[in-house]
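Researcher: We're teaching a course module on how sequence relates to structure. For the next exercise, students receive a sequence and then see the predicted structure as tokens, so they can try to spot secondary structure elements on their own. Here is the exercise chain.
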Amino acid sequence: MSINKKAVVLSSGGVDSTTAMAIAVSEGYDIYSLSFDYGQRHKIELEAARKVADAFNAKKHLVLNIDLRVMGGSALTDNIEVPKNHKKCFSHESIPVTYVPARNTIFLSFAIAWAEVLQAWDIYIGVNSIDYSGYPDCRPEYIEAFERMANLATKAGVQGREKFRIKAPLINMTKAEIIRNGCELGVDYGLTHSCYDPLPDGRPCGQCESCIIRKKGFSDAGATDPVVQHV
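Model: And here is the predicted structure for the students to work with:
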């Protein structure tokens, strides 16, 4: 009888991480879902992540509390306005204010710690370097560098029993390709949340960069977004 493969999947409850989880399931992994309550203004995403973990029958969904508001420096964790409207969102003259300093490095560090305890050698992350916000920790060279570091910095890696693999299956996909892939895998995108600055009732604002990228992705994919945005 074969031993089930285990994978830790970083989950924000958004389109990308949910599609990455669906891919992991399709590749035969038992899922250990990892989310973070890091003081983000869109904390509602944690409820979406819980629903997604349940939908994929995750073995466990772990939510870690790391209050990045004490450092601030991002529109998601500080009193900085989230940019709205298409022009501001896609100027990309510099890394946008929605960048959270070192966020993926922090998240992946916790992921390899949990993965080592679980003896789960594969970690899935839904980063994308095409239809994204220009964050430096979403690039292929970053993922490759972190994987090398993970195998230098852990008991499992140093002893050579196993090697950690940081899997970023969406890294070179457009948002439309991600959504088509997810639809083929039966993903219920109605469970997901993408908005950086949701309304008091939880509905997406429809105007922040994440909402705009999501809307364009569904349109380009020829699919209907089951989540209704505020307009």
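Model: If you want an answer key for the exercise: The longest strand covers residues 29-37. Residues 5-221 form a domain with the Rossmann fold fold (CATH 3.40.50.620).
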